[in-house]
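User: Here's a structure from my thesis project, written as structure tokens. My advisor, Dr. K., wants to see whether a designed sequence matches the one we expressed. Can you design one independently, without my sequence as a hint?
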């Protein structure tokens, strides 16, 4: 490992620890004591806030809440960071202002030749969601929903809280445990467990009005929540697919499910999955997808809501 790479790696190693010793550095990076001491002194000279502890078991402490020292980037690392910023443009990710300041700092560290390379990359590379007429890395065009950053800050402290969301009939409040926060089809979604109703709840973040701590003394444990949520997800859609439907499935399948082939030639298969019929958007997506699969399917089991939607859609074409 080259010296610059080793020092950068050591910096990341010690920054994630409240305390470390020279012996630990020697063992972790397979270097001599003199090399470890020189590297630590160089890291201190670069500005990392280390406090030496005197004594037989002494070592070093890293001062918390301090600005990290300058990090040295290779040309390929710079390109990787820059392309990552480009790829996440216009995706409504949180901490937009922080991402912008990171990009500005990164650009300020570079030589003119490196900046020229990045300008060229910015002109050539276009990712999904990029406006080709204005592909500026620092474009303020992907502002996330204002509740997203607050939600992330809250869930880092506690995943149990009370949410207020806007629904068709008005605002409603739910005590929930947040299972996952994810982005799908250009929307941020919360996969929650409704503690009162003992069932899963899918909530779009843009429907979120308020977040408050959940102060109940007796909470359901995480293990109990996982067990209850799995019990609910009984397969409610079972399909037999022929070769044409299998070909369509391979082109596009919005559900997190795989096919079970029923012959060695992979020309017939069975699909089993669970549909959250209470989620109107998921329900409509499933109806559209089943129509996309075509006529080469046989339905073994299907939720009545999906079947009603299919019949309604087909009646438009075959009254």
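Assistant: Designed independently from the structure alone:
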């Amino acid at each position: 490992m080259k010296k610059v790479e080793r020092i950068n790696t050591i910096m990341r190693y010690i920054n994630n620890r409240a305390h470390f010793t020279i012996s630990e550095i020697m063992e972790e990076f397979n270097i001599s004591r003199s090399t470890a001491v020189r590297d630590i002194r160089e890291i201190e000279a670069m500005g990392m806030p280390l406090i030496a502890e005197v004594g037989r078991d002494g070592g070093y402490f890293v001062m918390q809440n301090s600005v990290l020292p300058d990090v040295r980037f290779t040309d390929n690392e710079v390109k990787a960071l820059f392309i990552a910023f480009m790829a996440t443009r216009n995706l409504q990710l949180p901490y937009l202002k922080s991402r912008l300041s990171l990009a500005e700092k990164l650009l300020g560290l570079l030589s003119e030749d490196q900046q020229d390379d990045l300008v060229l990359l910015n002109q050539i590379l276009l990712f999904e969601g990029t406006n080709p007429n204005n592909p500026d890395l620092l474009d303020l065009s992907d502002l996330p929903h204002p509740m997203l950053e607050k939600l992330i800050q809250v869930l880092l402290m506690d995943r149990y809280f009370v949410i207020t969301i806007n629904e068709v009939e008005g605002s409603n409040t739910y005590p929930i445990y947040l299972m996952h926060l994810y982005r799908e089809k250009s929307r941020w979604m919360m996969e929650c467990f409704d503690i009162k109703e003992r069932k899963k709840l899918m909530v779009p973040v843009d429907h979120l009005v308020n977040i408050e701590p959940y102060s109940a003394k007796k909470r359901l444990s995480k293990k109990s929540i996982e067990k209850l949520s799995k019990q609910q997800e009984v397969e409610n859609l079972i399909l037999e697919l022929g070769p044409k439907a299998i070909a369509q499935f391979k082109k596009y399948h919005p559900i997190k499910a795989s096919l079970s082939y029923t012959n060695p030639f992979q020309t017939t298969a069975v699909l089993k999955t669970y549909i959250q019929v209470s989620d109107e958007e998921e329900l409509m997506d499933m109806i559209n997808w089943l129509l996309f699969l075509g006529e080469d399917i046989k339905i073994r089991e299907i939720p009545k809501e999906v079947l009603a939607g299919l019949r309604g859609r087909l009646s438009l074409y075959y009254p």
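When you compare it with your expressed construct, this may help: The radius of gyration is 27 Å.
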